[in-house]
Amino acid sequence: MKNIRFLILTVPFVFFFSCGNTVQFLNTAKESVNPANIGGITQEEAANGLKEALKNGTGIGTDFLSQKDGFFKNLAYKILFPPEAQKMEQTLRKYGFGKQCDKVIENINRGAEMAVAEAKPVFVKAITSMSIKDAIGIVTGGDGAGTSYLKQTTSDDLRTKFKPIIQQSLDKVEATKYWTQVMTSYNKLPGVQKINPDLNTHVTDKALEALFSQIEIEENKIRKDPVARTSEILKKVFNFADLKKKK
């Protein structure tokens, strides 16, 4: 009789705790397959963290390059004559047109510095329009993953929008005028093959190359240096990325 009473009293408790564990298990399983959660952070948080990182990189990169001498006295990014015009430059310097060549180089770099500042909103728009789905893998994708994605998906559009800004800047600092002068001088020299490189395309390509390079530098700072994670969302998302990297 005592055994029967013991069973009657015990079974409900066993059932209760078993149900509790089952509910907990189901809740855990549900969370693990929840498409809105990717292991400690939500998809939205991952996307927002990545976008903030790229915005920071874009802002710092454009500010750095748009300051005076951001291109002109920067050995990494200084824009020189287009490759197809370098022989022309050598010939012109040989014939005493060195000052004019120097003026062209200075002014095309001034044009790039001016244009970069104007192009910042184009990058910001491209970053903010990135879908949540695209952002998920990039968070744990390693150095430069965000910049690489941005380059692949926005380069053509950015180049189209950037070229008029470059042209306006080149005209404003009179780079176009000096370029025309040296081109005319060169093409009048005896025995040379006349050329007419597209200065706008050359400067645009070099300016975009420099911008993406600077964005990647800033993105990687956030990935590698916890001190560079200046907001709670950056800390949460890239701390998570660090943990995923160690596994």
In brief, what are we looking at here?
The chain has 9 helices and no strands. With 247 residues, the chain is mainly α.
Describe the protein in words.
- With 247 residues, this protein is mainly alpha-helical.
- It has one domain (43-246).
- The chain has helices at 2-32, 43-66, 86-94, 98-128, 132-139, 145-172, 175-187, 199-224, 232-246.
- Helix 2 crosses helix 9.
- The chain is elongated.
- The protein starts with a helix and ends with a helix.
List its salient traits.
247 residues, disordered N terminus
Distance between the termini: 56 Å
Number of domains: 1
Largest sheet: none
**Can you tell me the residue ranges where pLDDT is under 50 for at least 5 consecutive residues?**
1-35
Please state roughly what percent of the residues sit in beta strands, choosing from under 5%, 5-15%, 15-25%, 25-35%, 35-45% or over 45%.
under 5%
Give helix % range: over 70%
Give the class from helix and strand content and strand pairing: mainly alpha
The sequence of SSEs as H and E is: HHHHHHHHH
Number of helices: 9
Oligomer classification? single chain
Mean pLDDT: 80
Radius of gyration: 29 Å
Shape descriptor: elongated
Q: What's the total count of β strands?
A: 0
Helix and strand topology:
Elements: H1 2-32, H2 43-66, H3 86-94, H4 98-128, H5 132-139, H6 145-172, H7 175-187, H8 199-224, H9 232-246
Helix pairs in contact: 2-4, 2-5, 2-8, 2-9, 4-6, 4-7, 4-8, 6-8
